[in-house]
Every structure is written in structure tokens, then in C-alpha cells.
Amino acid sequence: MSRIGKKPVLLSTGVETTIGGQDVVVQGPKGTLTVKLPPHAQVALQSDPRALVVTVEHPDHVGDRAIWGLTRQLLQNAVDGVQKPFEKLLEFVGVGFKVALEGRTLTLDVGLSHKVSFSLPVGVEAKVEKQIVTLASIDKHLVGEIAAQLRRVKPPEPYKGKGIKYVDEVIRRKAGKTAKTAA
Predict the structure, then answer these.
(1) What integer pLDDT is reported at residue 47 of this predicted model?
(2) How much is the pTM?
(3) Among 1.10.3720.10, 3.40.50.1000, 2.40.128.190, 3.90.930.12, what is the CATH number of 9-83?
């Protein structure tokens, strides 16, 4: 049995779900998300307590157990996201590093020979406060992907720690070169 997959996804008030074929539509106060189900997974709506229950065709098969837990967690993320958007915070560390938000475009000045323009996709909101960019979306996968793409523009380097990093990320630092001593 999948430990994660067998837990029901509890639905709070204000969250509505529609199950149609291999699609589950989750609606909430912040928006609507659609989760596509894998071929071997089924979802049923339980009434008391109000929850979604995920099942698979072959619970003893290793692949189906993995799909079971994954599907349940994707549904949980959708239910959580339509209630409270997911956020990722990125910090710009470096002298002269600047970031500006103009409409739906982030302009990054991160020590390259040119400025980098990054347009935000529909569904992702950004907020800039000094050296910290806050990305928010109801879709956890989308906000994580956009944050990773922004970080990839100038990843933090291990000597001085300059670059774009997640706020809670710890950069492992390396020692620089040491001077030879005359003997």
C-alpha cells in the first residue's frame, strides 16, 4: 500500500471538485486548476468527511503504488493552491544587481554584458521589494519552474555567493586561493 496515496484529500468549504473521465477540476476562491489523472488511477468523491479518494488498479504493483502517491499529492497541491497561492522568494545577491518589474516583464541586471528580460506566464504574479522577488501562483509546479528558470540566469557561485538564490537556500562556500609562503 502507498502510505501517501491511501490518505484522502480533504476538501474544505469553498473548494468544489468536478470529476470527468481522466480530468479532475478543482475550483476555489483563488482560481481553477485541472489535474490530469494517469491511466491506472481513479478518483472518487467521498461525502463524509468531504474528500477525494485515489485508488489504483493494482495496489501491489510497484509502478502503480508510485502513481498512487503522486496522483494524491498532485490533487492535494491543487486543493491547497486554489485556497492560498504558493510562493517562491528569490534573492539577488551581488553589488549592482538590480531587478525591476514592468507590467508582466522582469528586467534583470545581474552583472552580465546585457540586461535580461523575463516575461512572466499567465497565472504567475511577481512582486519586487529591493533585492527580493516574490513569485506567486495557484499552480505549485508552474511557480517552481519559473523560479528555477530565473535562478538559472545567474546561479550563485561558491566563492562569494553572488547570484540569484532562493531565500531559504544555503550556499556551500569554498575557500579561495591561498598565497605561497616564502621558505
Answers:
(1) 87
(2) 0.87
(3) 3.90.930.12
